[in-house]
## 1
Amino acid sequence: MDMAGKTVLITGSTDGVGRYVASRLAAEGAHVLIHGRDAARAKTLIDQVVKAGHAAPTFYQADLSSMAGTRELAAAVIRDHRRLDVLVSNAGIGSQNDGPQRRESRDGHELRFAVNYLSGFLLAHLLLPLLKVAAPARIVNVASLGQHPIDFDDVMITKGYSGSRAYAQSKLAQIMFTIDLAAELNDAGITVNTLHPATYMNTTMVRAGGITPISTVEHGGAAILHLVQGDDVAGKSGLFFNGMNEARANPQAYDADARKRLRELSLELIGLSS
């Protein structure tokens, strides 16, 4: 895909791999919409892109731990743009960010489930009209090889909580959502894919977990860019990738009943009808 003139929203793009992807797409002539919570980091990225001779990205500040914040982000993008060619749902928190203890969002949802999965679920649904206008369009959900089956009797993990389990559950939820949405949009000209970009990239999230990075944001960014613009994936949808290669996710991702339960729960949590 020629990215010149394309409008791309990347959540969580003022730092880490999202920042790298935003810089690369701006260099290719895309109109990049960056998102984050830190305006200072956003300004640094914008200045860097402009200094390199490219069009300045547009910054949207929003807290995706809140469903209200997610709705405000969607409303702002819809207000400012008539089409959206690519949505990259990259924002997230790791298993150790601000400690491994259980925390809840403003809406009372387990925090990692809310940020890593539920906000992306809501944002994609709210932005579908803009993506349909731009078809052929793409949605890319940045997930992980770390996946834990969802216990539908305790989705918010009120018992036996650990940050790593919560993170892995949220990432599997992203993958299940990807498969579901791909089927829903089969005839709409929008592909939906998900991936594990790279293992333990050199990012704030990884370092916050006390983990020594073993790969670079450039390596993981290349995998994300592949799904954003690769011609070889233009007609592929509903797939999970490990880096550049198609892979199999946790078996629960392919359980239609489990995906239906997750979809119905998610729609209820965000206040949308099916």
Note: The helical segments are 16-27, 39-51, 67-80, 111-134, 163-184, 204-208, 217-229, 256-270.
## 2
Amino acid sequence: MAAGHRRWGKGAAAVAAVVVVGAGAASSGPAVAVNALQPKSAGSLPATQFDAAGSAAGAANVPQLTAAGGIYQWGTRGMSGLPAATTSGLSAVSAGGLFGLALKNGAVLAWGDNNFGESEVPADLSSGTTQIAAGWLHGLALKNGKVYAWGNDWYGQTELPASVSSGVTAISASTVHSLALLRNGQVVSWGSRADVPDFAQSGVDAISAGGDHNLVLKNGVVLAWGSNAFGQSAVPAAAQSGVTAISAGYEHSLALKDGGVLAWGHDNYGQTNVPAAAKTGVVAIDAGWNHNLAIKADGSLVAWGNNSYSQATVPKPPVCGPVTGASAGYEFGLVITDRSVPCRR
């Protein structure tokens, strides 16, 4: 697929990174999502041994992570050649179409495909970055309230509007559009989908961009707009109160309520069939193209949906130490895990 001539029929919603405590912060509290309300208090994840759901499928070429907070990636479409810097000290990850982003001490790291410059991080992002978001073929980052964008721009998804040059508190990248949340609670959208309905002009607490639909969280209520071909924008009654986190996939949607995952929209790969393990004790969620990841309070990981490339099978080992970050991409997954905690045999 030659650079500059690549088209797709079904792309994907880039998902927001799942991080610890807050983007760019040290691992000192419970796992929460970038697209979730921040907790008022922070406890610590127990550094205990436990069994993670899943099997060893997709666990080939295990990287030698020598310290806590390193990346593990799996799925056939997981890219080889992880940067050496990803073995420790990470605070966030974000899986895109065929590339990945990580955040370490305020510096953005990138690897994978680079047909459109999606792995060429702007020099300004070598320090001070607080959030990252990987789209299909473009990346976003947040630094000092200003959005940075790079990579594919066929639909203007990296052409930043003036309103996101300051005062931004959250970002989300999708297939060919992007979202930002301003300090005053207003959502800004650009790229292939630039419309923002009246209900997202103020008071919004969290954002998540899907394939061609968007989710926002407002006072615990999930609101949506955009494509509804598979019911991905038809918010169920259960998600209209008490929700604490949201994540939009390509043609499906997730919400977190009372520690349980709610899902709706396209179910062609079982991505809205929430397993029992994800119905209680969940603290963070991430919707990929057609599969999902959920982190539980004990640091274990649950995955479900499309498993064509083992992306919905949690590798065990090595993913059995506390997971402090996770992101579901196109056909691969990324986690930040503590390899110092051995797997229970």
Note: The chain has a mean pLDDT of 81.
